[in-house]
Amino acid sequence: MSSSDVDRQIRERAFELGFDVVGVARADEPLDVEHDRYRAFIEAGMHGTMRYLEEYVEERRRLDTPAILPGARSVVCVGRRYARSAEAEAHDPEVARGIARYARGQDYHLFVRKKLRRLAEFIRGLGPGIDARPLCDIEPVMERAWASRAGLGFVGKNGLVIVPGQGSYVMLGEVVTTLVLTPGVPMHERCGACTRCLDACPTGAFPTPFVLDARRCISYLTIEQHDAPPEELREAIGEHLFGCDVCQEVCPYNRTAPPPEARTQQFHPLSRWSETRLSDLASIEEEAFPETIQGTPLRRARRGGLARNAAIVAANKLARDPEGPDAEDNLRTLERAAAHEDPAAREVGEWGLLRIGRIEREPGSSAGDEGAVEPDAPPFAPRR
């Protein structure tokens, strides 16, 4: 079998598995500029509390090491689109609209990893002695840099991979293999003079193009960080409950037509979000939490983090529209967060109540000193 036949079979199999774009890069050639940017990011402390990013620093430079796959020669990079039309999103439940688009449905790790395993199995079956390892977001791999090198797309000024004709709403995955494949042509940045993503960031998380200060990023503040966000950033977080898509929403490359709704079914909001209100998220019982977030990426934020985030959203909604249709539930959310055992949720809940004049701060005190507020209803238990 010729090398071109092998390349073609792998691409065809990847498309059969549901991936929308496929590319190949050499796995035994180290990253250079991209790795330098990563090191500078870490050395500047812009990764905040994500200590795992400080590990395997040199191993992230290449893929043919014991950390990934000894003897690796190629990496097959794939992407799965999750963009949906504005018309479809308009029908999403209120809570779901505060969740980043990739996380409104099923946890992508579960079904993307399954497809990557099947692709790796297919590659191993192409000949004796061929090894292949699927990678999906948890290994120390700079997947955006490899996707760019494979010609999958280019890395935009917001640090995300943009696939021309498909946009940046794309989940990435890789299969590293000892098989020698024909590498694609690396795709270089095509943003030109455009800075819409940088200018639109509500919290000013981009000090310069291609550099993200995670400590100011809404996705980091609502997912990765365990403490309460700095008070000066809470208003800018707006109504983002889990993650943020603002820098993608303004990108001209995302004006492309989305795939058919049937192609994005696994990213559609779960039915449970239709039955959930902010106040529910602020008072989930510990024993009910695993069932509430089962099969969704929201588990990453933890129970206290979701209560904290719900309180930020509720406070910002009340500040914007104190007499709105959800005002009562927003107030209930703040009260429940202020009574939460998680200190970050409690701090933000009391900050929200202070902001709308429901409690008063003693001279010289700070939010969190006023004492717990009793919840007005039993904690939320997920509906069946």
UniProtKB/TrEMBL annotation:
GO MF entries: 4 iron, 4 sulfur cluster binding; epoxyqueuosine reductase activity; metal ion binding
Superkingdom as given in the UniProt entry: Bacteria
Coiled coil regions, renumbered to chain: none
Alphabetized SUPFAM superfamilies for the sequence: alpha-helical ferredoxin
Enzyme class: oxidoreductase
One GO-annotated biological process of the protein: tRNA queuosine(34) biosynthetic process
Cited Pfam families: Fer4_16, QueG_DUF1730
Cross-referenced PROSITE patterns: 4FE4S_FER_1, 4FE4S_FER_2
EC number: 1.17.99.6
Annotated stretches, region: Disordered: 359-384
Residue stretches making up the 4Fe-4S ferredoxin-type domain: 181-211
The entry's keywords: 4Fe-4S, Cytoplasm, Iron, Iron-sulfur, Metal-binding, Oxidoreductase, Queuosine biosynthesis, tRNA processing
Alphabetical list of NCBIfam families matching this protein: tRNA epoxyqueuosine(34) reductase QueG
Protein name in UniProt: tRNA epoxyqueuosine(34) reductase QueG
Gene (name only): queG
